[in-house]
Amino acid sequence: MLTKSKIRKGDTVQVLAGKDKGKRGEVVRILPKKEAVIVSGVNIVKKAMKKRSQQDQGGIAEVEAPLNISNVGIVCKKCGRPVKIGYKIDGDKKVRCCRKCGEVL
User: Fold this and answer.
1) Left, alpha or beta for 20 (phi > 0: left; psi -120 to 50: alpha)?
2) Buried b vs exposed e over 70-88: b needs ≥16 C-beta within 10 Å?
3) DSSP class of residue 96?
4) Spatial CA neighbour of 7 closest among 47, 42, 43, 39
5) Which of 36, 58, 64, 89 is most buried, by the most CB atoms less than 10 A from its CB?
6) SS3 assignment, position 54
7) CA 29 to each of CA 55, 64, 68: distance values in angstroms, whole numbers, following the listed order
8) What angle is formed at CA 57 by the lines to CA 66 and CA 64, rounded to 5 degrees?
9) Residue 33, Cα to own-chain centre: how many angstroms?
């Protein structure tokens, strides 16, 4: 199922559940078909990489794995904690805002 996410690339998010609970990072990539996000420095897994060319280094590499979008919450700059996202009309634009303090995200 493809749903429109309220979280976008470049947002600062905090992990709400899982092995990296409490860690913060920036959203690097969104995977809408899987309903997942890749966050920098979070959910690091070891992956065996095959040697592709003569100069390429093979071996075990650490890569960021996707997290389910429901397990992360966007961090409000004013509140400093993960919050729910609301929308409000600012002039002729629809903008995302914090539900607690009303700050535009």
Assistant:
1) alpha
2) ebbbbbbeeeeebbebeee
3) E
4) 39
5) 36
6) coil
7) 28, 11, 12
8) 10
9) 15
The first and second tokens of residue 88, run together, are 């409000």
Q: And the tokens for 20? A: 């990296």
Q: Give the pLDDT band (50/70/90) at residue 26.
A: very high
Q: CB-side exposure of 39: number of CA atoms within 13 Å? A: 24
Q: d(Cα 12, Cα 8) in Å, to the nearest integer? A: 9
Closest to 81 (Cα-Cα) out of 68, 99, 66, 96: 99
Instruction: Identify which of 46, 45, 97, 89 has the alpha carbon closest to the alpha carbon of residue 66.
Output: 45
Q: What is the pLDDT of residue 2?
A: 61
